[in-house]
Predict the structure.
Amino acid sequence: MEALPLFHRLSGRPVLVLGEGEAAEAKARLVTESGGIVVREAGPDVRLAFVALTEGAEEAAAALRAAGLLVNVVDQPASCDFTVPAIVDRSPVLLAVGTGGASASLAKALKERLEQWLPPSLGPVAAAIRQARAAVAAIHADVPARRAFWARALAPGGPLDPLVPQPDPMAAITAALAGAGEAANRVDKVQIPPDGADGLTLRQLRLLAQADLVIHAPGIPADVLALVRRDAARRVGTEAPADAAGRIVLLTL
């Protein structure tokens, strides 16, 4: 990755916007829609700044940076401490599309495709999941069991498939909980083809993205391991431990 994508909470916090005109107004709207407070002068509580000046932008950015602020200079990605991605808003779900400043048009095109692809119910699905956490924890006491429950519910074709319109997400979760007696543990084997990550099937990619634990043989290519869910546990070996729980993937060459 060329940059680390982060979601910054702005609710009630001041954000500096320097400049006038369309570009500055767009940044001000973005700050306001994110819950931040637009200010026109740097103060002790200001940590982020947008510079939309037609002249002196680099000098202003350098001064703000020296004062400890993170700065975004409009249309000058090389001068930015952070960039603003194209945003797909299905609050509380947010998708950010960034290109490292290479092409705002590409980010916009991808955003438009995602807007068409993702159903409006995606936000209510996330809100229902948040609301149902306590109920799920009451039935599935340990973390691997909870992960397995959500993986089954959110899987393609599952009762809470996020890419399928969900008229009543909470009812779908309740129905999934009613089937809580289903086996929580599952072991899948994924054999890496000769061409590595490029040869993986969609099903294999999905398994890697859903795994709670990945057991991998020595010598598995790094580009394959990079596809594993970031918070999944990883162990070198050829067999799953007897006490392993959740969704387990055995990676072999």
Observations:
- The chain has a mean pLDDT of 89.
- The chain has three domains: 14-84, 122-178, 186-252.
- The longest helix spans residues 122-139.
